[in-house]
Design goal:
q64v53_bacfr protein fold, about 325 residues, binds zinc ion, Hypothetical protein YwqG fold, alpha+beta, single chain
Length: about 325
């Protein structure tokens, strides 16, 4: 169908006006750029009448300031409008999966929400926990006061304590077992006495506060992954706004570009960024720690450790490395 297209831009808003004809039928459509706009039709019994009508309508819009364009707006814009709607729908879907996490602030005090590499709260009669492999005393890594956590859904009574074995030397046959099994994560009563264990690695400090961030899950649910992968290339391209996907999933590229990808940092809550597949069933991550300061735990290459809440409410420690 022959079409003539006109555009105008006023106060930053672009509008189109198109006229198409086929025999005695004329269709006029107009509206905001990027939408299908509104159409109206007229019928004529002769080509001469039709052309006279078109010429008169064109004169009217040109008088209003419209300029003839090579781009045929309604035909070209309808798919663009669809792409825009699809991109917006994907963004909405992704945003719905955002969840909060909190980055710890370390310092001397005065607000103490947790202790790192320092004293642990033990009951008066309690003995300091020992490594199941070498039987030597474990080293304190973290004590977290769950009654003071900023996320109400992670808050509960009691302390969560994490210990690790650092007493082994690499020429001992039991070292491997110390590295893999020499971890103790437990919930402890809040009352007790503060006791110092053996000096280990890391830096003695306190968690003095939290900074709230939001994170996207590392992966989308499989049904959404499939839907996203079946989207038209122009939708993916518009969604990623030209970011290079390097063969990665569009979701991961989008998550990174949005600045809300789940982070490999020390954090409370949030989405665990597992280095290897987690073999435990859990409902929430309580805390994630990296091998970096102030913890300095032995987590191997690019390792990360996760205090996870099991469906039973029990807190367990899972770690993995490359
Ligand atoms: Zn040990």
């Amino acid at each position: 169908m022959p079409t003539r297209s006109f555009v105008i831009e006023e106060e930053g808003k672009k509008r189109f006006w198109d006229v198409s004809w086929d025999g005695g039928e004329v269709e006029l459509s107009s509206g905001a750029w990027g939408t299908a706009g509104r159409a109206r039709c007229r019928s004529f019994s002769s080509v001469a009448e039709r052309d006279a009508f078109i010429a008169a309508e064109v004169r009217k819009v040109v008088t209003k300031g419209y300029v003839e364009s090579d781009t045929v707006a309604p035909v070209a814009d309808e798919p663009n409008a669809t792409v825009g709607r699809k991109v917006a729908a994907w963004r909405k879907r992704f945003d719905a999966t955002l969840a909060p996490a909190w980055l710890p602030t370390f310092g001397d005090g005065p607000e103490v929400h947790g202790r790192v590499r320092g004293a642990m709260t033990l009951l008066g009669h309690e003995t300091w926990p020992a490594c199941p492999s070498c039987r030597r005393p474990l080293n304190a890594v973290l004590e977290l006061d769950r009654s003071r956590l900023p996320d109400p859904s992670l808050r509960s009574k009691g302390l969560v304590q994490l210990f690790t074995c650092e007493a082994w030397t690499s020429d001992e046959a039991t070292s491997g077992a110390c590295i893999f099994d020499g971890w103790l994560a437990r919930t402890h009563a809040p009352e007790g006495v503060l006791r110092e264990g053996p000096a280990g690695r890391g830096q003695k400090t306190f968690i003095t506060g939290w900074t709230r961030i939001v994170e996207l899950p590392p992966d989308l649910e499989p049904t959404l992954v499939e839907r996203l992968e079946n989207e038209a290339p122009e939708v993916i391209e518009a969604l990623l706004q030209g970011a290079d996907d390097d063969g990665r999933s569009p979701y991961r590229v989008w998550a990174e570009a949005s600045g809300n990808a789940a982070r490999n940092v020390h954090k409370l809550g949030g989405f665990p960024t597992f280095v290897q597949e987690c073999t435990l069933s859990f409902t929430r991550q309580l805390f994630q720690l990296e091998c970096a300061r102030p913890f300095d735990v032995n987590l191997g290459d690019l390792g990360a450790g996760h205090l996870l809440i099991r469906p039973s409410g029990e807190v367990v420690f899972f770690w993995a490395s490359h």
